[in-house]
## 1
Amino acid sequence: MHAEAAMNACRSNPPQSLGWVFMMFLLFPQTVSSPPVSNPEAEDERSRADSAKLPETRAARERMVQEQIFARGIRAPRVLGALRKVRRHRFVPPGVQPSAYEDSALPIGLGQTISQPYVVAFMTEALELKPQDRVLEVGTGLGYQAAVLSLLVREVYSMEIVERLGREAEARLKQMGYANVRVRIGDGYRGWPEAAPFDAIIVTATPPDVPPALVAQFRPRGRMVVPVGRYEQDLIRLRRTPKGLERESLLPVRFVPMVPESERVPK
């Protein structure tokens, strides 16, 4: 089926289960060329100026939530509320801000992307977050997912392997008042052991399989949502129960590979 036809079919008939064609259309981070990474302080005024040229962003966020997220089955009120509040256009480079609320992933520089709004919503809802939770995010990007998480939990610890992106995200999150987010530049395969255990872990890039260090860092009754695989990827949820780890397959996906320290991108 042609991708556009598949999307139209899903929009007119909100899915009870999502098919492979639909999700492959949702997630193609490699298909868009990457703009250069910006300096958050130098470009803050430019960002605000560019924002003024966009359609009213509050209305754009509401359309995003209603048409792309609620219509596809996301129902958690707190998740929907966070997505209505976070200004997604502030977490992408100025050149792609007019597309910030569209139904697609967007390039953020250095070969990385910001996930499609629906994917952010789906993974966030799957974590089943509570207000007192402490969450580890692997793959900060420019900080959009961390900003959404920060409105839902007590503390967010976010790791990014690409230093330039991580530093920009840290500065931007601070400027925008997300005071409960901490950012570290480092190898996501190792996690953040001194801050563990976490109530939930979210991974926004794909390792071949679940990193053992991350499994060791979420607490009893904790949850982890992570895409795994090489050529065929599957989004899974792990739960730590009294009987051990439970592994649940959620849906097929397509993410950029999770990069280990040995392949770290230069500054």
Note: The radius of gyration is 17 Å.
## 2
Amino acid sequence: MLRVRRLDHFGVDVADLDRAERFYTEVLGMTVELRLPDQRLLRHGDGNCALFWTPERTPGGLEQIREPLGKSHHAFEVSWEDLVAAPRLFAERGIPHHAPIDWGDHECVYFLDPDGNLLEVVGYRPAGAPPRSRGGATSR
């Protein structure tokens, strides 16, 4: 048996590398490690995200955000403060997203990147922080 230490990187297919790079750096705070003609390697925390140029890619649709649970996605842990701020940031930028989902000790917000890839931010609730109100999906 192999023993995985950590996730080193994951790959995301995108139709426009420059647009995707702007999204992942400006919205999610990743930094560019490497630029190649057909891919970008971005750094986040102790891992990496590889953006692969796939011009024929069909974008994912808004149905992913209406019912995000159980669908393939990538999840990023953020601070509680960033999790609370995420819906406003997404609304201001026209990013389709679902209202926060409360899992007891943490909440999450699902959203779409410009290519329709389903993503999630997860924030762990500080001790004593009350649950927040809920809603449904929000689209552009």
Note: The mean pLDDT is 91.
## 3
Amino acid sequence: MKLHRVFVAATLAAALAMPVTSFAKPQDRDDKKEMQEKHPEIREAIRQLEQTKDDLEHKAASDFHGHKTAAIKSINEAIHHLREALESDKH
């Protein structure tokens, strides 16, 4: 059980760390779009989490004794919270 918690925590940390390193210096977006977009970092994090989820669902070799399912659940929760954050800023 302890190993399960460690694996889930490490997977979630890795998934959440990927967007941080990739949006620190945007390279493929032009400056105008960034100025128009209120929270490009959050939208990019959502995009990368969705890609990671898709990779896990379609490319991962096995379920890893339920760990893949747990990681996907955590990713879904993270995406949900990020979308709620965007929505809350509209009001």
Note: The chain has a mean pLDDT of 79.
